[in-house]
Amino acid sequence: MAGKILVLGLGNVLLTDDGIGLHVIAALDRDFMRRDDSTVVVLDGGTVGLALLPVIEAATALIVVDAANFGGAPGEVRVFDADAMDVQLGVAKSSAHELALADLIGAARLSGSLPERRALVGIAPSSVEWGLEPTPEVAASIPRACAKIESIIERWAA
Q: How many domains does the chain have?
């Protein structure tokens, strides 16, 4: 994993928009990523846990994609780079995996292995009720989120 950019999708696909991070990485892997790009690893992190710590520690750079409450309209996509990511993770949490991600980032920081280049691609949810698909306005954000991830990867690769 050394020298790799890790794109980590988070969420619970049983809770409508909460699973958007996993829907985005599935689309990214299927439709957007260049198949010959060995510098990028796309990973389904599910609802996150400290078991992901070694994967993050081994990455050179980290992009997390997840539902995020930042006051945006449902489906709005916003990128939080480095310190802004850390601040966003410190705001009120709407799910257990948001808290777990903050703990995971904190553990990587304590071990001295938190990637300096890191970003959160957050998508504002509309609903986190039971359901297997994101709401229409959040589902419509998938191509925008993928484009933002690709832009970050290109910027970091330059």
A: 1
CA atoms within 13 A on the CB side of 103: 12
* CA–CA separation, 43 and 8 (whole Å): 5
Structure tokens at 111: 């071990």
Q: What is the CATH number of the domain that holds 50?
A: 3.40.50.1450
Please give the angle made by the CA atoms of 80, 84 and 90, to the nearest 5 degrees: 105
What are 71-100's pLDDT values in tens digits? Answer: 999 999 999 999 999 888 877 555 544 558
Side-chain-side CA neighbours of 19 within 13 Å: the count stands at 15
- For 38-72, the pLDDT digits (tens) are 789 999 998 777 889 999 999 999 999 999 989 99
Question: In terms of residue numbers, what domain contains 43?
Answer: 5-157
What's the rounded Cα separation, in Å, for the pair 23 and 21?
A: 5
Distance CA 127, CA 25 (A): 20
Q: Which ranges in the chain belong to alpha helices (H)?
A: 20-27, 53-58, 82-89, 96-110, 136-139, 142-157
